[in-house]
């Protein structure tokens, strides 16, 4: 900042800070004074205005006096009133001094004394005060009214001391409050940071618990090799319906082995896997509709299958358990779950599909086209008690994961798509994997496990699609025979 000053007024040797101090004191005294500043190629020009006497200094030299319009037009239009840091610091120092003074206990005693003195003088010289009121403590013969003058002097000192004490207390309290607010904000900021770090650590710990045990990858590699070999054999020959079911159970068995090896407590739990095939109501004949309605669960009695989009039909022969080799799971019974008719917007609504009548579990996975997880019976009951379901349906679902069915305590569902049409088609089946123990980290585990299940999903998807087409052919052939017999 270059030095500049008033010639003839302040002298060219005065610094800019001194000039600013003078201007601040002039403003403090009520004199109209301002400093206007422009940047000019890295230098600064100063315009000073004291009671209309305007002068401009650029690089310490007086440029224009009084008429500065031409110079102002030639300079940039950036204008600010420049406050004086030095003067402000001095004023704050003075204010701090008076604050400390007014807060002294001795000063409180002085204030009290002046109040008592003013009260005594007011009662003793009341007539003199009344006669000299509004006359600056003089009576008509121009003699000094000592009593009244002393009264008003004591009253003024008392008022100043009293007001100053309250001002000092308010200023001190405000400073304390500001300090406490800063400390509180700092504590809140550090607390939020600690909470965030704690959540991050907890998330990392949860992630650590979702990792597979040591040696899993070697076992997984062996399982994948066996799965691919079994699928290659099944793909090279013409299979009957029972052979396709056996090939599907073989792949389901490899899925169970993978999930069981992935879980740290897998050796102490019993697992099961099954397939639910989607049957569209518009493509079913009357006999098939009646058969499916007989095992339809979690739906009102008056609801007909023709009013639904279809059902997910659990096929018992497409199921396995960890207790058997490649036989069907003997604990399962055939049942079907409803799939309501939904618009595309309702299918894409991720907020709450239960409001459209979509059941949790496999129906939710089918409609949403993504994996769903039920980690505990409590989680199932919470979803099953949604207000969007009727009381009859809620009562039915509440007993699904009960002690009587202790072999199902947690499960996850994976939708299967038409081979080579996953992006454009809707699911045609749902793969369910369950176990007899709750699994509080099943959702996190599935995020890491799902990519590992892709080879099995592809193999099961192709075999299940062949199974479904073969079933349709058998049904068509049976209907043809029945029609010929009727004729």
Please tell me about this protein's structure:
With 487 residues, the chain is of the alpha+beta class. The protein folds into three domains: 16-83, no CATH class; 96-205; 217-482, 2-Layer Sandwich (Beta-Lactamase). It has 15 helices and ten strands. The protein has helices spanning 16-28, 69-74, 85-102, 105-124, 126-131, 146-210, 216-235, 241-262, 286-294, 344-348, 362-368, 377-384, 391-398, 442-449, 454-486, and strands at residues 33-40, 43-50, 53-58, 61-65, 271-280, 310-321, 336-339, 372-374, 410-417, 427-435. The strands form two sheets. The protein has a six-stranded antiparallel sheet with strand order 7-6-5-10-9-8, sandwiched between helices. Strands 1-2-3-4 form a four-stranded antiparallel sheet, covered by helices on one side. Strand 2 (43-50) and strand 3 form a beta hairpin. Helix 3 crosses helix 6, helix 4 runs antiparallel to helix 6 and helix 7 runs antiparallel to helix 8 (241-262). The relative contact order is 0.07.
Figure out the total of helices.
Answer: 15
CATH class of the largest domain: Alpha Beta
Low-confidence stretches: 1-16, 31-83, 480-487
Radius of gyration: 46 Å
- Name the beta content range: 5-15%
DSSP summary, beta strand count: 10
Q: What's the rounded overall pLDDT mean?
A: 78
CATH superfamily of the largest domain: GAF domain
Tell me about the largest β-sheet. Answer: 6 strands, antiparallel
- Share in helix: 40-55%
Biggest sheet: strand arrangement: 7-6-5-10-9-8
Counted up, domains total 3
CATH architecture annotation name of the largest domain: 2-Layer Sandwich
Q: What is the fold named in CATH at topology level of the largest domain?
A: Beta-Lactamase
Secondary-structure class: alpha+beta
Order of helices and strands: HEEEEHHHHHHHEHEEHHEHHEEHH
Overall geometry comes to: elongated
């Amino acid at each position: 900042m270059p030095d500049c000053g008033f010639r003839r007024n302040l002298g060219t040797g005065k610094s800019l800070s001194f000039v600013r101090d003078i201007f601040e004191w002039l403003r403090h005294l009520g004199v109209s004074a301002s400093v206007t500043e422009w940047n000019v190629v890295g230098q600064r020009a100063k315009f000073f205005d004291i009671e209309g006497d305007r002068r401009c200094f650029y690089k310490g030299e007086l440029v224009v006096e009084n008429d500065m319009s031409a110079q102002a037009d030639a300079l940039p239009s950036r204008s600010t009133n420049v406050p004086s840091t030095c003067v402000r610091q001095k004023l704050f120092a003075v204010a701090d001094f008076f604050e400390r003074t007014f807060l002294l206990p001795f000063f409180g005693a002085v204030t009290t004394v002046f109040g008592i003195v003013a009260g005594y003088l007011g009662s003793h010289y009341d007539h003199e005060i009344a006669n000299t009121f509004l006359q600056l403590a003089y009576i008509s013969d121009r003699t000094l009214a000592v009593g009244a003058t002393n009264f008003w002097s004591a009253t003024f000192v008392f008022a100043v001391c009293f007001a100053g004490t309250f001002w000092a207390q308010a200023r001190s309290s405000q400073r304390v409050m500001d300090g406490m607010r800063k400390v509180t904000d700092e504590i809140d900021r550090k607390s939020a940071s600690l909470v965030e770090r704690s959540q991050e650590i907890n998330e990392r710990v949860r992630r650590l618990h979702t990792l597979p045990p040591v040696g899993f990858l070697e076992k997984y590699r062996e399982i994948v090799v066996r799965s691919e070999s079994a699928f290659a054999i099944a793909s090279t020959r013409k299979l009957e319906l029972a052979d396709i079911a056996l090939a599907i159970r073989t792949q389901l068995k490899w899925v169970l082995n993978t999930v069981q090896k992935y879980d740290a407590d897998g050796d102490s739990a019993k697992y099961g896997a099954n397939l639910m095939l989607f049957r569209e109501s518009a493509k079913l004949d009357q006999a098939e509709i009646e058969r499916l309605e007989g095992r339809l669960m979690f739906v009102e009695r008056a609801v007909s299958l023709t009013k639904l989009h279809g059902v997910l039909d659990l096929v018992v022969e497409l199921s396995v358990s960890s207790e058997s080799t490649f036989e069907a799971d003997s604990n399962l019974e055939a049942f079907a779950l409803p799939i309501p008719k939904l618009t595309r917007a309702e299918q894409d609504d991720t907020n709450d599909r239960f409001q459209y009548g979509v059941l949790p579990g496999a129906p939710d996975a089918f409609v949403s086209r993504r994996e769903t997880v039920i980690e505990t019976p409590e989680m199932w009951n919470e979803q099953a008690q949604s207000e969007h379901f009727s009381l009859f349906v809620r009562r039915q679902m509440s007993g699904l994961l009960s002690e009587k069915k202790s072999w199902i305590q947690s499960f996850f569902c994976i939708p299967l798509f038409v081979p080579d049409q996953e992006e454009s088609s809707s699911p045609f089946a749902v793969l369910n994997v369950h176990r007899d123990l709750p699994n509080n980290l099943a959702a996190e585990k599935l995020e890491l496990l799902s990519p590992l299940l892709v080879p099995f999903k592809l193999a099961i998807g192709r075999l299940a699609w062949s199974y479904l087409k073969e079933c349709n052919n058998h049904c068509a052939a049976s209907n043809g025979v029945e029609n010929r017999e009727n004729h």
